[in-house]
Amino acid sequence: MKLRYGLYPRFLLLAAGVLLVVLAVVAVVLHRQAEMQREMAALSRDSIHGLVSDRLRERGEAVAGQLADSLVNPLYYFDLDAIGVVVRGVLRQSDVSYVIVYDNNGAVIHDGSRDIATYGQAMHDPLAYEVVTARDLHVQSAGRILDVSAPVRIGDQRIGGVRVGYSLDSVNAEEARASAAMQARMAAISRHHAVWIGLMMLALVAIGVVVGLILQRSLVRPVRQLANAAREIEAGNFAAVVPSTTRNDEIGDLVRAFSRMGESIVRHDRDIRRMAYTDALTGLSNRLAFRERLDQRLMQLRGAARQMALLFADIDDFKRVNDTLGHDAGDEVLVQFSNRIREAIERGGGDHAGLARFGGDEFVILLESDDSGAGDIRAAATRLAETLVGELGRPITVRGRQVFLGTSIGITLFPEDAANAAMLMKNGDIAMYQAKVAGKNCHRFYSRAMDQAVERRVRMEQDLRGAWERGELSLVYQPVFRMSDNVLTGAEALLRWQHPEHGAIAPSVFIDVAEQSGLIENIGPAVLRAACADAVRWTREHHDADELFIAVNVSARQLRGGDLPDQVAQVLADTGLAPGRLHLELTETAVIGDEIRASTLLGRLRSTGVKVWLDDFGTGFSGLSHLRRVPVDGVKIDRSFIADVLRDPDDLALTTAIIAMAHSLGITVVAEGVEKEGQFEILRERGCDLAQGFWLGHPMTAQDFARLLG
Predict the structure, then answer these.
(1) How far is 529 from 552, CA to CA, in rounded Å?
(2) Where are the beta strands (DSSP E) in 143-200?
């Protein structure tokens, strides 16, 4: 068997050799030499400094001690001449800056001069205090002076002292001379090493040249040939010639693999392009394909008397399908939606219409006008949007269940709204968003005013984040009375927002923003907890308030989350409110989309003793029969019926029917929006149980409501 000595082992051996030489010679030698020089210089300076300083200190201590002994008699007899002779003898030394003889109080007795100009003056230099207070030989330094002092004693009695000041200039000069000599020696050693390092570097260069030649011949040249072939393939020339080889190493394997790859690329190119431009679930064009087509059509339409419309269609509440039925069912819904949209476009979209799925539940339709007139494209887009709203509003059967969804459509026109693809797509998104804000399951054309509306809504969403924590959001309470005897039975908690700049914001505005942005999932539990805490506080302060209920609104988004029963149970446990005193109010639209799941969640809530009410009753259900399938304890007749109950016989008849139907099912009825005495009286005659409204009581703070309790 022939031994294969491949390119990779050769390259590893060469690279390892070069790296070892470079690292060992250059890095280690240079680094260690520099470190050694620095360490030796520092060590030498420290050693010399210590040696010279210690020698000067020892000398100073000896001189000061001898001088103190010599001055005992002259100082005792106060013989200034004898003292001067002794002092001047020491001053003759070259490195002595001063000699001072002083008494016990620190006054100068002799300084070695002939006239003793400082005689009797107190020593005030920075070192004087320690000199006077020292009882033994004392050494200290300041700046360029080493001060050595010694007391003069007769027996144990101190009669004065002497201090000698040595100049450190000589010490520094001696250190400098020694350091200079050391540096010169080290420089000579460095030059000697530099010669060897230069020789070694030349050897490395020679090795590098040899390695480069080897790599050039065995690796670079064949790789360059393969790179040229790869560029040909990249340019679309899949038939590029790949050099042949008989080498039995990795390069040979690479060349042969390149040849096989070129053959397979041709086969897979068509499949890859189809995958890149097609939505895998629906088979429609994806975002990339649509964008390329849109750019191409815009270039062709510029300067022509043609118009174009983009329709952005987004399925309303599609997340609910995934959350309740699963993602597989959601995929089935998307396929059925795409089929319905495709059929509607084939019937009324024209020859040049296009359809794409942008991902998730968003579809985009492209319509083009002909040369018949500028107004045709708007009319065609309107007709198609209305058709889509109708078609997509029909129930969809998924796994034996009917799902009611809708679609919100935003429409933007070229060139009326924008002249490039990016702005058209942005405008379409804005228009679609406005369709959702307008109530969903409708269409809206883009207008420039929408940009400002979106900006205001985004700014409001930003301001609403953290508003509860900042104390901007607060609760007010509207009283609820029993109609039979006009007795206060409870209160509904209502959320208010006092914006620091814009003042009071209407609840219908900011609650919708909280719903759309998901902030209601944080605000809702906080409102529930605060309302329950206030109800408990009223009970503590007023014993006759232990039967009052507190009604709290719950959004559809909170109900869809699935953890509402657990949240309610935790709040009740934390606040101590009896479950029967808590009424949760949900709108009809919160439960109509998925009655089975809503019934399960509401059943769990009612099993704990919490009451469940349907708010705004009469505006969402298609029939009163839904009450049989949704477990509730009460309904609140929408204020729109109460407002005209005195003038409109139809509203009175419908209200009477709601009361009768609810009572037949054992359900309590509340009338909201009672603003006149006549409304109150006629509703009481019809048997309505509870009522709230401005005629009975305006929303008020918790403190005002507590005062209402007496």
Answers:
(1) 10
(2) 145-154, 157-167
Could you give the angle at which helices 421-437 and 448-464 cross, rounded to 10 degrees? 60
Question: To which residue do tokens 């509402």 refer?
Answer: 564
Output b/e per residue, 422-437; b: 16+ Cβ within 10 A. Answer: eebbbbbbbbbbbbbb
Tell me: the pLDDT tens digits for 321-339?
776 677 888 888 889 988 9
Length of the chain, please?
710
Let me know: does 568 contact 529? Beta carbons within 8 Å: no
Q: Is 293 exposed, middle or buried (0-12, 13-18, 19+ CB in 10 A)?
A: middle
Can you read off the two tokens belonging to residue 104?
């016990």
Rounded CA-CA distance 241/40 in Å is: 65
Query: Quick one: which H or E segment has residue 86?
Result: helix 80-91
**Could you read off the pLDDT of 606-658 as tens digits, one per residue?**
888 899 998 877 665 444 555 666 778 888 988 888 888 888 888 888 889 88
End-to-end CA distance of the chain: 107
Q: What is the DSSP string of 279-342?
A: -TTT-SB-HHHHHHHHHHHHHHHTTSS--EEEEEEEEETHHHHHHHH-HHHHHHHHHHHHHHHH
pTM of the model: 0.50
d(CA 256, CA 253): 5
Interatomic CA distance for residues 144 and 98, integer angstroms: 13
Classify 631 as helix, strand or coil.
coil
At residue 565's C-alpha, the angle toward residues 563 and 571, to 5°, is 105
Peptide bond into 507 cis (omega under 30): no
Nearest to 351 by CA among 334, 333, 371, 368: 368
Q: How far apart are CA 677 and CA 350, in angstroms?
A: 60
- Crossing angle for the helix pair 564-575 and 595-607, nearest 10 degrees? 20
> What is the rounded CA–CA span in Å between residue 620 and residue 636?
12
